[in-house]
Write a structure and sequence with these properties.
By secondary structure, the protein is an alpha/beta fold. It has a single domain (2-197), classed as Alpha-Beta Complex (Lambda Exonuclease, Chain A). 51% of the residues lie in helices and 22% in strands. It is built from eight helices and eight strands. The protein has helices spanning 6-14, 27-46, 48-58, 60-63, 68-91, 140-157, 181-185, 188-197, and strands at residues 2-5, 94-97, 102-106, 109-113, 117-120, 126-132, 163-170, 175-180. Strands 2-5-6-7-8 form a five-stranded mixed beta sheet. Strands 1-4-3 form a three-stranded mixed beta sheet. Helix 2 runs antiparallel to helix 3 and helix 3 runs antiparallel to helix 5. The longest helix has 24 residues, at 68-91. It is globular and about 45 Å long.
């Protein structure tokens, strides 16, 4: 039985050959994603200036690194935050808060799921954002499967609320898919098949 994060499951959805490994990735590969997620939280809590300053401080060494790939990775992360800020303004829905991490149980294992941000429409419907910072481009079809554990988590966390959709955002690629709740929930079998392959 697999026990993975929703981010890892998303990698398995995008790449059917992807396999879990016991060897953790090197820190320089993990850092951009972890600090980018922290920057999004700072943006929603403290504003865009605070988020930008934080990201430039923690990536200061990488932004001037002698290896071009390290510099490019850091620059893409900074640009990804700018993409997120612009897309948030374009979305127009009000930020409501952050969601606690939730474990979604599936036949082939469990998926630890963290909705990155919760937003509220003028009509009172909730939407959850799942923000991704690495990997190949997410297609519209893959986004519906990736959205599944987030949809289940939102229903579990907010059973009395009307939930409209899950927004799957690739910040660095400026790629966004809005997946209606019912469409996401209908992908249980495909999501479990992806989990079983890991």
């Amino acid at each position: 039985m697999a026990d993975v994060t929703a981010t890892v499951l998303a990698k398995g959805v995008r790449d059917r050959r992807y396999q879990l490994t016991s060897t953790p990735p090197p820190p320089f590969l993990v850092k951009p994603t972890s600090v980018a997620r922290a920057a999004v939280r700072r943006f929603h809590r403290n504003g865009m200036s605070n988020a930008r300053e934080y990201l430039r401080q923690v990536l200061a060494g990488e932004l001037v690194h002698r290896h071009p790939s390290m510099r490019t990775n850091a620059e893409n992360t900074v640009q990804g935050l700018e993409n997120y800020i612009a897309a948030d303004a374009g979305d127009g829905r009000e930020f409501t808060g952050f969601c606690p991490s939730t474990t979604v149980t599936m036949p082939s294992g469990t998926v630890r799921t963290q909705v990155d941000a919760l937003v509220n429409s003028a009509s009172g419907e909730l939407s959850g954002r799942a923000v991704f910072w690495d990997g190949g481009e997410i297609s519209a079809d893959d986004a519906t499967v990736i959205a599944y554990p987030y949809a289940v988590a939102l229903q579990s966390l907010y059973p009395e609320e009307t939930i409209s959709d899950v927004c799957v955002w690739q910040a660095r690629r400026n790629n966004m898919h809005l997946v209606p709740l019912g469409e996401a929930l209908g992908q249980a079998a495909r999501a479990d098949a992806a989990l079983a392959r890991l």
